[in-house]
């Protein structure tokens, strides 16, 4: 089998497509990711690269129609690739090689992490970068001076890139004081409204998969889609039909 060439953002500068990095971390709400991808398939000017932690990937192994396999998700319209931790180290690095988490950051106009688990929220708030998702977040252009907009493709936050997160966790985890401390960093200290680069879509209250009832469930996936469409200025075409083999650049 031929090994594909290393991914480089510079190979995808043209074409006029909006670039969405759609990530999921270790929460049962990961099963909503296929819904999000399918809903976004109506936009022919959108390219999606999916990032999954190992724990998130465990929820998408073809267990049921609600939990299709990663191979199936890879065939959905607009999905350019699915990236996992192992992709960062496909071969021993040598000088001159591209670095995947840097290239993904350069490529993306918007990073959406839905769901963002309690563990990954803690890692991001503390600046940890021990997997591909958190490495992309840690390498994000927080200053807004490194990654310029591509011609004809406006950036989502007043000329800057950004990270949208939808936390999801057990109610007790959500109400734990350390969660409020970590969330404050993203939702206040680093918020786009204050010149930062994070937008937080807060959880909702419902009966959770674990059986508890209360806050902590991920923001409604349809509203996440709407938020993505709004930030990337995607026009909704309800009557648009896209072939099932539609792929993105």
- CATH homologous superfamily (4th level) name: Flavin prenyltransferase-like
The overall average pLDDT, rounded, is 90
Instruction: Indicate the CATH topology.
Output: Rossmann fold
N- and C-termini, Cα separation: 22 Å
Notes on the protein architecture:
With 249 residues, this protein is an alpha/beta fold. It has one domain: Flavin prenyltransferase-like (Rossmann fold), CATH 3.40.50.1950. Helices cover 27% and strands 20% of the residues. The protein has nine helices and ten strands. It has helices at residues 33-39, 54-57, 70-73, 100-107, 118-125, 132-138, 171-174, 177-189, 221-232, and strands at 18-24, 46-52, 61-64, 67-69, 79-83, 110-116, 162-167, 198-200, 204-207, 213-217. A hairpin with a 2-residue loop joins strand 3 and strand 4 (67-69).
Summarize the structure.
The protein has 249 residues and is α/β, with parallel strands linked by helices. The protein has helices spanning 33-39, 54-57, 70-73, 100-107, 118-125, 132-138, 171-174, 177-189, 221-232, and strands spanning 18-24, 46-52, 61-64, 67-69, 79-83, 110-116, 162-167, 198-200, 204-207, 213-217. It has 9 helices and 10 strands.
